[in-house]
Amino acid sequence: MKPDSGISVMITGTGAAVPDRVLTNRELEKTLDTTGHWIVQRTGIQERRIAGGRTATFHLAAAAAGRALRDARVAPEEVDLILVATSTPDQFTVPTAGLVQEALGADRAAAFDLSAACAGFPYGLATGAQFIRAGVYRTVLVVGAEIFSRIVNWRDRSTAILFGDGAGAVVLRPASSGALWYSHLGADGRGADILKVPAGGSRLLASEETVRQGLQYIHMNGREVFKFGVRVMEEELRLAMEQCGLYPEQIDLFVPHQANLRMIETAVERLGLPRDRVYVNIQRYGNTSAASIPIALDEAARCGCLAPGSVVAMVGFGAGLTWGTCLATYRSAAG
Ligand code: UT7
Hints:
four-stranded mixed beta sheet, alpha/beta, 335 residues, 13 strands, binds oxa(dethia)-CoA, single chain, Peroxisomal Thiolase, Chain A, domain 1
């Protein structure tokens, strides 16, 4: 999407919600053949949040969405559309977004889920923005929410150390003139096998046999995902800057998908972005998939790393393979 076509869009509020329970590397050392040193050195992760048994994805999603609405000073009745990006929905049907709508009391809103794995949030931003740009809707809630701890094999050290639970949300609204909005999405189905949950869908229904083989859990070729993620972050952000006519120093904050600190550092170094313009919180939450960018965005807003009028760049990537980029203005500098 070119930045200068039609009505523009802006992020007017953010919110996040993570479970209270902290799972440290030290705890993982007791159950897995790993060390805290290895995890920090190879991923940057020190701890992650894990949802309790009674918490479903929609609980975290609704909490984050409610906070984003309050931050944007928008009443639930004003919301036109709720989009929940998730790979860990509450159930196959109903959509998690419908449960969020009910929890918020956003009675006028349409609601649906979006499945694009760890790229779900940029996919959600692009989709929500289209409704605003087309003049169809005025207020769109985009939520990324996951309880990945339910699809992680806690005996597999190559994945169990990586993931965590949480949700983040933003409110999108039409922008005053001068606001930047750019989004670009991509996919490559040839890479479907490097990151997947093999069973539990129509292709391979859950059965005693699939459970015995652990096929309900995430399976990943970490090295291949690593190379793909670094390449996508670099290429996509380069393309975005070129399309928007921006230099790296004109990006106020880069909020990448929090998959691995080494991946982020490699991409940032290749792009020549100043390190203090890159928001990283993977050390505290691990990889929360579709929730990672909006959780980081909300933290950045709360700690003053984003100011009204800031240009924020976001790149997500994940299973599918999928990837998505968004450059947006955070609030209006005019207030
Ligand atoms: O949102 C997208 C989802 N996923 C990702 O972005 C993941 C991207 N990939 C990664 O983050 C990294 O590939 C990992 C952190 C998963 C793995 O790090 P790596 O440096 O790529 O390790 P590797 O897979 O090349 O494995 C190196 C060694 C292996 O041992 P051998 O074969 O050399 O003896 C692994 O068995 O490290 C071993 N290993 C571990 N050792 C201690 C793998 N996991 C662990 C572990 N603790 N937790």
